[in-house]
Design goal:
The complex is a heterotetramer, with 1 copy of chain A, 2 copies of chain B and 1 copy of chain D.
Chain A: E1 3-4, E2 20-31, E3 34-45, E4 49-54, H1 60-67, E5 75-80, E6 83-85, H2 90-95, E7 98-101, H3 113-117, E8 124-125, E9 128-129, H4 131-144, H5 160-173, E10 178-182, H6 190-205, E11 209-213, H7 217-223, E12 226-231, E13 234-240, H8 246-254, E14 272-282, E15 290-300, E16 304-309, H9 315-323, E17 330-335, E18 338-339, H10 345-350, E19 353-356, H11 360-364, H12 371-376, E20 384-385, E21 388-389, H13 391-404, H14 421-433, E22 439-443, H15 451-466, E23 470-475, H16 478-481, E24 487-492, E25 495-501, H17 506-512
Parallel strand pairs in A: 4-11, 4-12, 7-10, 10-11, 16-23, 16-24, 19-22, 22-23
Antiparallel strand pairs in A: 1-13, 2-3, 2-5, 5-6, 8-9, 12-13, 14-15, 14-17, 17-18, 20-21, 24-25
Chain B: H1 2-12, H2 16-23, H3 25-41, H4 48-73, H5 81-97, E1 99-101, E2 106-108, H6 112-135, H7 141-160, H8 181-184, E3 186-187, E4 190-191, H9 192-210, H10 212-222, H11 224-229, H12 234-260, H13 271-281, H14 293-312, H15 317-339
Antiparallel strand pairs in B: 1-2, 3-4
Chain D: H1 6-21, H2 35-47, E1 53-55, H3 64-72, E2 77-80, E3 92-96, H4 98-113, E4 117-123, H5 129-142, E5 148-155, H6 160-173, E6 179-182, H7 185-198, E7 205-207, H8 213-220, E8 226-229, H9 232-249, E9 258-261, E10 264-267, E11 274-276, E12 279-280
Parallel strand pairs in D: 1-2, 2-3, 3-9, 4-5, 4-6, 6-7
Antiparallel strand pairs in D: 8-10, 11-12
Helix pairs in contact in D: 1-9, 2-3, 4-5, 6-7
Classes of the chains: A alpha/beta, B mainly alpha, D alpha/beta.
The complex binds adenosine-5'-triphosphate (ATP) (2 copies) and magnesium ion (2 copies).
Chain lengths: 519, 346, 346, 282
Amino acid sequence: MSAQFQSGARPQTDPRLGEVVLAARNVAKSYGNVHALKGVNFDIHRGQVTTLFGENGAGKSTLMKILSGVIQPTSGEIVLDGLPVSFGNSTEARDRGISIIHQELSLAPNLSVRDNIFMGREIMGASGVDFAEEERQCRKLMAELEEEIDPLTPVEDLRLGQQQIVEIARALSVDSRILIMDEPTSALSATEVEVLFKVIRDLTSKGVSIVYISHHLEEALQITDHAVVLRDGTMTAYAPRAEIDLEWIVRNMVGENYDLGSPPEGHALGAVALSVRDLTVPDPKGADYNVVDRLSLDIRAGEVVCIYGLMGAGRTELLETVAGRLRASGGEVVLEGREISHLSIAERIARGLALVPEDRQRDGLVQTMSVGENLSLASIASFTRGLFTRRKAERALIDASIREVTVKTSGPAAAIGSLSGGNQQKVVIGKMLATKPRVIMLDEPSRGIDIGAKAEVFKLLAEEAKRGLAVVYSTSEVGECLSIAHRIIVMHKGRISAEFDSTVSKEKIMAASGESVAA
Amino acid sequence: MSDTTLARSAAAKPAFSLGRLLLEGRAFFALIAIVAVFSFLSPNYFTVSNFLIMASHVAIYGILAVGMLLVILNGGIDLSVGSILALSGVVAGALMQGVELPALGVILYPPVWAVVVLTCTLGALVGAVNGVLIAWFKVPAFVATLGVMYVARGVALLMTNGLTYNNLSGRPELGNTGFDWLGFNRLAGIPISVLVLSGIAILAGLMLSRSAFGRWLYASGGNERAADLSGVPVKRVKITVYTLSGILSAVAGLVLSSQLTSAGPTAGTTYELTAIAAVVIGGAALTGGRGTVRGTMLGAFVIGFLSDGLVIIGVSSYWQTVFTGAVIVLAVLMNSIQYGKGTRKS
Amino acid sequence: MSDTTLARSAAAKPAFSLGRLLLEGRAFFALIAIVAVFSFLSPNYFTVSNFLIMASHVAIYGILAVGMLLVILNGGIDLSVGSILALSGVVAGALMQGVELPALGVILYPPVWAVVVLTCTLGALVGAVNGVLIAWFKVPAFVATLGVMYVARGVALLMTNGLTYNNLSGRPELGNTGFDWLGFNRLAGIPISVLVLSGIAILAGLMLSRSAFGRWLYASGGNERAADLSGVPVKRVKITVYTLSGILSAVAGLVLSSQLTSAGPTAGTTYELTAIAAVVIGGAALTGGRGTVRGTMLGAFVIGFLSDGLVIIGVSSYWQTVFTGAVIVLAVLMNSIQYGKGTRKS
Amino acid sequence: TDPANPYWFTEGEVAKATAESLGYTANVAAHKGDTNAESTLIDTAITNKSVAIILDPANADGSIGAVKKAVDAGIPVFLVNAEINQEGLAKAQLVSNNAQGAALGAEQWVSMVGDKGNYVELFGNPADNNAATRSNGYETVITQYPDLVKAGKEVANWDRTQGYQKMQSLLQANPDIVGVISGNDEMALGAIAALKEAGKLDQVKVGGFDGSPDAVEAVKAGEMQYTVLQPVAVFSAEAVKQADSFIKTGATGAATEKQLFDCLLITKDNVDKYTAAFTLSE
Ligand SMILES: Nc1ncnc2c1ncn2[C@@H]1O[C@H](COP(=O)(O)OP(=O)(O)OP(=O)(O)O)[C@@H](O)[C@H]1O
Ligand SMILES: Nc1ncnc2c1ncn2[C@@H]1O[C@H](COP(=O)(O)OP(=O)(O)OP(=O)(O)O)[C@@H](O)[C@H]1O
Ligand SMILES: [Mg+2]
Ligand SMILES: [Mg+2]
């Protein structure tokens, strides 16, 4: 039986569930007139995993930041081991045994993996920092996470997923009693998630309490002991593991059932819209292999193609090269019959080829601009007449985008940083869709967006496909391959290792990617 | 990442215009305070004629500051403005003295409009050199413009052998009079230089707020990679802003040498600092992407009105230095104290 | 999975030191080129005594540049170093002349070590003012240090009434001799100022590479928010770097006035630009988090050896200006051309 | 001009003191050699409805505009220390006779250095006419001695630190010099510091120009051979008196616009007569 709660109500705690180590009592947080949390009660049980579900902007990250001392609540209190506490900053919380993996990476790109892991907690030896010891511990952590990341590599040279691993390793390196993980796996592949889960089980068996947030619901279900659903800043549901399933979560989260959709039908596929011929891309960092290796691919108008692969398969490089960011060393890219290899990014966008980049913070958003300005950034030409932009036309375009991709924001003038992670992602997608592309490429478009939004984005893409848009998206979640894609392409080491139609099984896809089908 | 910018934006919507006033508030209130204090201290300060005079002094810094604003919005910096100013003045001076064409054995006296056009072209070229070094050769802006600052200054010195061109009024029989018009004349009682500044400020303001280029500029200053992927021609934007800054420095050089009716190679030394200070006092962030023409103008007026005021009330020049420094800090400080967290980014 | 990262890290290890050399290569090669060219042009350039003299000139800029490096690593900038240098020199001068205590009716002549300590304390205080303005009051570093630059200069002028303290040697009967030791003496043939620079550079290098503070500095310069969340005391780090920069400016002021055996309030004007140039030529990024003491030293030597070399071969001073600018750009440009993609970040 | 130089400092102070003793309020401001700053100062003087302006022009050519502006506003301008290249604007131009002073200095210099050997010259700010005037004056005298060879000439911008560093480099290039002739005292004092450091002060003779207190000390100490005193105290006081007379009577009382004040030589012999800054009591 699942229990439903009114806003502000306290969850019933079953004595079987284990002792509550950390709890939020009636915690509220407002930013001006935005009420991110409206009086939430939340318990963390010793040695168990509590999962927090909720739509983008529901207040999950806000609650976690309060529990870990990053921000202070407007009202309400935090109870640690039965005693009320207040944390002035995250260091105080860390000293009390609470550590957090942030949703948005917080690493110093200029420093090595080792230095990032021990940032602010350097191990001191006789003559300054004991680098050898730090490195040793760092290697041990990496071994535990089954990652081959050299401790001396600068973080900026790592792929996003690897950076996330570093972030995880840092949290693990603090021997904390309570570990909060805010979407730790958004850039990880299934294998790595497995490893992480192994680590989590290990930790819980040692009595460490975990809070886990993820938009990958199936994945979260594997690990959770308790589920809590947050909606619009209030807690709407709680249930122990035994009583929850996917349907329960979705119902409580978005209030309706969801479906990632099925390949759009009933329209004839058009001519080949994008054709990639023998494309070869050398490693951008100068290593002597090709990250994309003589790859050929045709996509027809109205077709939806999914590219699946493990981290490092070269999907990002493929898409960035087609978009014009990286230079190919060989091969050609043909858009609607015209060779475009020599064109700039801007010219490709003008011809109808758009890319939604993988890393929204670094490549997607202009933090100094408002939500509206970000949305209209790629399509300025469409509302410029003569020398000047036309405010009305721009406003109409922005409003349409906000509606289309359902961005939850206080308005177009809001700062982009005030949006929740998932809504930021939607802005990036909306920005590129606003250019009215003929071919759109999305690199991991579902990263960090909630299940409802994901469904909406896929629905939107499917509808656009019906109108003749060619869609290519990459993903690291097998489930997403089997949604709207007509065709699934698996990449491995820069080449296409397999190609399937939409009736294939998950196992086959994973096998082709070189992934062990353990889960 | 999210929580840094937040507090601001939450307030941003309802208090939109008020918020902007507050953001630029520091400069605005500082200006009011300066005018009030000096008017109280000297009867000669609060007069129309004095304001016009002071405005004509501000014009030079203001024109440079507009160019600097563009560069700073782009996330760069331009240390060469003072040198370009001097070089342009000197070149204009040389052109007014006549260009000897040895091949033909004649001396050409270009008319004033041609001098202006040629000088601005020169400024644009030097600015473009900055831009190309920075955009194509990836030389950090500070280094590129520092180098160009030295080179331009050196060339100006070499051209004149350290001396100053004096007679820029031209001669009627050569048909090249009118150079001093810029600096000396008034339209409807307002000095031409002030009008030039207003014109430039309005154009720049329109460009920033209404044109696609303005949007590109803010975007590439805020996040160059994201702007690039959104189809913003980031390299072109960069070269353009440095070119514009070069042109504006040349204009400032013309205005200045016309005000002085002379052009020397050491003019404009350290003006880059004044221009940058005006931009920063006006609320722009040196990291790029934030700033307005309005703020920059306020910043320029704060600096100009302050230094003129100190002279008018007869403060000793040492104290002037101290006050200038203190007011610059205070003007910006006021903001931090009052609106606390809002300014994290700059 | 495994093989992707393996390849990279395997390659990373052996190329480690070579990679660093290449990164700092621009400054290194520029220095070699400068020495080669001048040695070829003048027989007097490539001599031990000249190198020592040049090194003692570099000492002043070098000491300032080390402080500037710390500030720049932190993502800031310190425009006040030249003024603090002047103020410290003047204060040291005043102390050497004796402090009159009107209450007691005596004149105190502090011994030289006390003068040095007091002066460095003063530098630290002024630097701390910068730091507090920036860290606590969130005034942008450019504005805060610009303001302090004016104020410190003004105070130096006021203190001396514009004049220069001339006789800093002290008098034996007062027990305060030895001030000129810093600037005049040599240990094992090496000027003290050069030794001071080396000591400071080594200490700073150790601090950056070995101490926790060094890690904090790089971390907060690379991503302040992340550093803050990781428990790095970012505010304290900030205040400390500006304080250190202030102390180093005071040291430079002591060395300079000891070299000249006189201290004037206008010393050190525009040295901040030279110091920043040295840091940037040495490969540091103005955005913070990247740079080394070694690079900065190379940068300082490039600038110093170039300008002295131009004097030695007797190039006219205008051409000196042009060459200085050109070499600064070229030194950095070489890097971009040769190692193209590697330098995206700076 | 820049009040951080004792020369200009005295100029301002003397003028101010004289004016105040005549019952005026005097306002001293510095343009630091920047013609734009100068023009700004003139504007504020006009705003303040000054009765007269005593100006040390920043630039022989560059300052003409500023003077014109003041004259157009009906304020009489009296120039001191440096000239402008246009007559009939200012009511008077009172300057020290730089050419005479330079010749005087150069002769003294030759008599002390001897008539052969290598020497170097330190040159002031090239934008300032006086730099060239003095240099030419030196040149005229010294070229009469063919065995005196100018081994180097460096611009040190009137500044002591630059004088010091340039001198050190010059010493490297020319270790065998016997003399240094400098365009002003500050640069000469810098050169002396450099020579001291190199241990060559006893073999190299240094001559300055201005007659600043520091230089006089150095002459006293035997480190500097001589300095040429510019009668700045005299002509600044005189300028104010002429301004006063012009305000009261409409005439300056002087015969010509350009008035040259002869420079005096300060050597070890007469150094005791130097009673106040820039004043040599006869
Ligand atoms: N600093 C802030 N200023 C203004 N509003 C904020 C701020 N931080 C968060 N918000 C708002 O609070 C709400 C909750 O945000 P939060 O980041 O907690 O969502 P979330 O549940 O973590 O979403 P996601 O799944 O997308 O990460 C959102 O509406 C967001 O816009
Ligand atoms: N054959 C190879 N050998 C070694 N390393 C490789 C090889 N191919 C790719 N890599 C590494 O993997 C990186 C490719 O990562 P990329 O981000 O393109 O992969 P992806 O498929 O987009 O993965 P994800 O988006 O899941 O992180 C390259 O930068 C390179 O460092
Ligand atoms: Mg979140
Ligand atoms: Mg990828």
